[in-house]
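Hey L., structure's done. Input below.
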Amino acid sequence: MGKQSKSSQGKDHLHIFGPAIVLVILGFVLAYQFVKPAPPDHIRLATGQPDGAYYLFGQQYQKRLQEERIDLEVMTTAGSIDNIGRLMRGEAAAALVQGGTAQNETGLLSLGSLYFEPIWVFFRKEAPITRLTDLQDKRTAIGTEGSGTRALALQLLADNDINTSNSPLLALGGRQAADALLRGEIDSAFFVASPMSPVVRALLDAEQIQLLSFDRADAYTRTHRFLSAVKLPEGVINLKRNLPDRPTTLLAASANLVVRNDLHPALMDLLLQAAQGVHGKGGWFEESGQFPSPTYLVYPLSSAAERFYQYGPPLLQRYLPFWAATLVDRLKVMLLPFLALMIPLSKIMPPIYRWRMRSRIYRWYREVLAIDHQLFNTDADLEPLRSALDKIEYDVSHIDIPLSYAEELYDLRLHISLIQQKLERRARADAR
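Output:
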């Protein structure tokens, strides 16, 4: 038997395993049609004015997403109302939105609330102000057009029958409103912001400025269910100066992380992880681990966020980089052809291969047995049988098979030799 050539082995494997490989490839091609698209590597987050907390938090989100190779563009805006408009127009994929500013917009989802956003009403100490009703006739900054501060301030002032017809309500917000208040150009100003906001911190530290305490907070929270009452402890701003000099009650909305409903679910999970890292430690008004939260929402909670709050980050994202986790998650549908085809084929193909190899050997036994049977016929012509047997021996010696089947091949050649010996004994007997 000649040694089987590598090219012959390759042809054998191609003929036997080729159709199975083609079948598996077709299965993968079909399954690939159901693979979800990859998440974009660039998204926009609408925040607020450059001197506000939304913008500062947006920058922290940007840094965290950059670590996962996602480019988060932080957009400066007029505020929450503007942010909602940008989401609806598709100019941003995500936004920070103040509680109480949502209307009946469709196509927007909340990933959760992030922190309490107090309503700070600052006024100059020389102005006798103890309640919002005292702001009538006062020059009050209520926030710029398109800001959540303006929408909420107008709502609270309207509860106290204060409007533009009986009071000078000015479209000032952020640093501009704070500077006007510090210079005495206005009497009071509304801000809706985190205590970490530079504008809020500056006004809290200003000696000529007083912070209004909402002594009727329970009435407001029962009228507006999106509001909560929070306490600013005595001395928390500055212990040495004892600021504030008494516990102060504030009303607070909740900042929400809002997204378009067509944002890739993997990016929703990533934004939630960023929010957890930024806001999870708590603050002046929040307990550690209280936020992000599926409560205090301005829009329906997304299904991705619901899973996040129930089970935590996706399993793959806990142990793999974001790009690798999303790739594996997208391609998991490709396991279907593997399970449906590869496992059965792995059990079927080895027996088929063995049958193909052995059939090259066993098919010669039919002819050898036929010659053996003719030797029992006393009238048989031995010369054609001898020639046929010699040809079989020659052909069998050139069968190309793997070495693992050499034993079966040599068994066949041994049996051919036995028949040859039997034929020679018959020939000698006939000669006598």
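Confidence is low (pLDDT under 50) at residues 1-5. Residues 116-253 form a domain with the D-Maltodextrin-Binding Protein; domain 2 fold (CATH 3.40.190.10).

-- N.
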